[in-house]
User: Fold these one by one.
Assistant:
Number 1:
Amino acid sequence: MAASETPWWRSGVVYQIYPRSFADSNGDGVGDLAGVTARLDHLVDLGVDAVWLSPFYRSPMADFGYDVSDHTDVDPTFGTLADADALVEGAHRRGLRAIFDWVPNHTSDRHAWFLASRSTRDDPKRSWYVWRDPRPGGRPPNNWISAFSLDGERPSWTLDERTGQFYLHSFLPEQPDLNWDDPAVPEAMHDVLRFWLDRGVDGFRIDVAHAIGKDPALGDNEPGRRHDQDWPSVHPRLQAIRHVLEEYEGDRMAVGEVYLLDQAELAPYARATDELHLVHNFVFLNLPWSAPRFRATVDEFEELAGPGAWPAWCLGNHDHPRIASRYGRGPARVAAMMLLTLRGTPFVFQGDELGLTDVEVPPERIVDVDGRDPVRSPIPWEPPSSAGPGAGFSTGEPWLPMTPEAERLAASAQVGDCESMLSLYRALLALRRATPALREGSYKSLEAGEDVYAFERGGDLAVALNFAPEPRRVGATGRGSLLLSTRPSAPRGTEVDLATLTLEPDEGVIVAFA
Ligand code: GLC
């Protein structure tokens, strides 16, 4: 890359693939890597620049792959190492970058490291995980609570009878936490990065990145101060990870899942120029559908993170209800425009470009420990009337129910329809690609009318989004011509005055200043 060129992870758009639910090539009802490779052209036609794949490594699947039992092999459910290589190669051939998920905070309890660690107190790998004696009365070592607590709060400690000590697991008991305070752990986990970097991977999404720094004294969590994550030691650890990426040519990138619901706590991660390249912002993702709330949040983040930081925006992933279910179908179109026009790198979750909603999962088919099945329903590629009930996702019985709307929302059914969500995403992505101000321009929010969130990009254009299900006046200053509306029938090129322009219910527009 020439020094003046913007790196791909700043100018591009990333698309998240949840491999189990994307495309199944062998008819077993579960998506796989060969399925992904066969569908890469969908992403090229959509107009994204990179794919991030959720984990496909060897795993007992207690948390569907976020419990890794071998970091350097592919689970047979998803294929083989050769399939992973073919995927990266297929992506690169099409000009797409490929980023993989890396889960540094914990492993599976079946990982060879943990099996050794739990075997005896004096095993050399004992200190690779966090072991502590019970407190008096057999109580867990401290008050830390594990993340999946659907059926009530549970300690993040499990007693291992064999050696009489508790081990730490911030998530399921099947996901013991690695002990990053033992230097052997970062060393081994860096080698995992190198294994995939050597194979050509363009970067990583780092699972719960803020959790690899914890209070080594294991102090109790207190109101306003957690000791089980976001400890100062996390920052040098992220720096060291960045250094591993920098051993390689070609702009390798790390985006962190930093799940902190306070932008002031998130900002240090975003501001640091020698740690993560990008951080996901879950304050933004969790907002209610409100123009003033989105404006205030984006403005606050821009302010806290500073001009050197580059935001990463996402409104969905495999852990959260879908946009069209949270906000509604009309707002989902406006949300797409917002996501793809803010200053920063947008992340699109698979199926949001089709306007999918969460799919009801009957009790007997629930498989996730944390209620996330509805968002993980498989992608409908073709209408069931032509492709059968698997809708082109699978010739077998999909592992989770297919959306009952597959006939209408299938990708192939949306392609020729200029009113479809897919057509809107394609138009937005094409415009973004063709418009430097949208990719790299500065951001400034504008004073606007009630329920309208409006902002300027690079001084060249404005975006105005109506969050109300009723017409609303934009009421901002500026004139120009309409580049794109979320309303397919709105004539492009029309001259508009933002002061008097009235947006239709759930309409967003992009206006190029005259
Ligand atoms: C992250 C992942 C989630 C997983 C958890 C534990 O939050 O996104 O799916 O369950 O980490 O690895």
Number 2:
Amino acid sequence: MTPERVEGLQKLGIQTVADLIKHLPLRFEEHHGGVTIEEATAILGENDRSQDLVTIEGEVAQVRPIRGWKRSKARVEVLLEDDSGSLKINWFNQPWIAKKLHPDMHIRVHGSLSNYKGSVQMTNPRWEKVDGEACTATVEGGLCPVYPANEFISSTVIADMISEVLEGALPHIEDHFTEKERKNLDMPELREAYRMVHKPQEESESKEGRRRIAYDELYFLQLGVMMKRHHRQSMLRAPELRWDEKVRTRIEARIPFTLTNSQQKVIEEIGNDLTKTIPMNRLLQGDVGSGKTVVALHAMLMAVVGDAQAALMAPTELLAEQHYTTMVEMLEGSSVSVGLLTSSLGTKDRASLIDKVSNGEIDIVVGTHALLTSDVVFSNIAVSIVDEQHRFGVHQRATLRNKRDDDLTVPHTLVMTATPIPRTLSLTIFGDLDVSTITGLPPGRSPITTRLVQPEDTSKVYSYFSELVEKGQQGYVVVPLVEDTDSGMKAVLSHAESLEREYFQGKRVAFVHGRMKSEEREKTMAAFREGTIDVLVATTVIEVGVDVANATIMVIEHADRFGLAQLHQLRGRVGRGELPSVCALIASPTTNDAIERLNAIVETTDGFRIAERDLEIRGPGELFGSKQSGIAPFKSARLPRDLELLRLARRNAVTCIQNDPLLKHAELLRKRLLKKYGESLGLGDVA
Ligand code: ADP
Ligand code: MG
């Protein structure tokens, strides 16, 4: 085994024989086993493109890396020769291929043929160096499995390795289901399933094997989620709070506006949860600007009325600061004490604050992740709220604790998000959450007009901007960078300077970004809120939460650089008052994805539709949000394709946990579950 191959395997997450067996083929390909270039030309005939894939072996005669006029057009042009002729191959977007191939190398390419100006050629074929035999791992009918591979190790080499160990390994695979269970599921034994996916007698067998393996994957996650839910409901306890007319009236007196019906409804749902000792585990979804903060305030005040504490955790310092200001304003003149805890607090102030938190002098703490530091303990926390800009990460969050807590007492938890969770997802990692949704926006909002503007028309946008400023309105300019780089993209500091010079002379232009001291940033934000700053140039730090009703224009430079959800959040900073607002997206998008994103954001301001579009554009691969949740993505299950299988897994997992909450009677299942999800789902203290 060459070091290169070892690296290749490692990159695929393969370290043991078991990993190798779990590495499943993507598909099976039919091979027109090695044809010559002459035969290939005949196969293509008069067609522009061949239907079938062909495999050709030959010597590399020439390798030419060609730089495109932009990065995505870069390609490597290779001339392949055999005794019967020559064939041109183009690899787009894979510049590393030029380093791997050199003249006289013997390679095998596999792909479809096409006709380019009368000569036969291939585009982006799979390829491998010929140093052994061709695809020995073929199954019946000459089908060849194609495994996920990379630049260090080819599918063929992987297929050979699997082929070599499979037979010896299968007998060691133990099934965690009994024969009876398998019969009910109408699924094959686990070892048989692995045989079927790697070495199917016919293609349908590989599907049957895959179904079993995908089911297991979904089932384990459901089991984990259900086990956790059971544990929470039957073992954990949260403080019982009061929610009645008196409390309601007292809290509402603090809110400077009339709640919308939708806000009232979710407040009732939450209030109802808080009167129970089963810890609340609820997700509050509502579009940008829909008014989630006052809902959070309600929940927190319920804790305070019940002589307990509450915490609100925000994803950025800026947002924590803003929440803090909002709370302080709404609670002015009351006896409720509010504290702000972020990592930029000085040592002394921090010590004094956490002291007050732990002895109960502070009722409501607003903060960032700094709240999760182990020396922050509460005297009596009843409600913990997390304001998340993006949805995932629900499970890795540590819970806030009390000084003298046993492990079984926890606060009620509410997670707020502006990005709705699609149904398929809500069944998977979020299967343990109850969901409340705020629909619509509070009254008195005027619509936002969104326009895509070509970079050459930028000056028109800023001229319009300066007219608005002239009328006393304010606005934002968002750029991707803090400081100049050689990327040619605009940066906060220099852009603020040039805007002031070119369009806003005598006006007040300021900037904020994530690398600023938080005091300075807070000062600038406060000035912007008070209206003493006209133009605020910023990075995406202002993406969440910033709320200034007099800001009516937002310009986003290099808008194609931002994700869809991010653009939506950014745009949500305007359209917060009575005046109509404008959002100008400056970009000349080059990739399809970017074009689709920008079209979507221009077409609609409905966050729920944008979230759906976002998932469509990004595809199900990212849909699972595995990175943020710390949960490994599915290997063979695919959502929403396997939705039926997911439902089945869920039903069975519910029954299983009902009958045997700790899986005492299913030793192997339990062992595997803990190995797989023990850490990421925090099952350690459950089972
Ligand atoms: P988000 O859901 O994005 O967090 P916020 O809670 O920041 O939204 O609310 C956006 C703005 O709408 C705030 O200025 C808030 O005071 C205001 N708001 C919330 N609810 C109402 C309401 N029922 N009537 C009028 N204004 C409201
Ligand atoms: Mg908010």
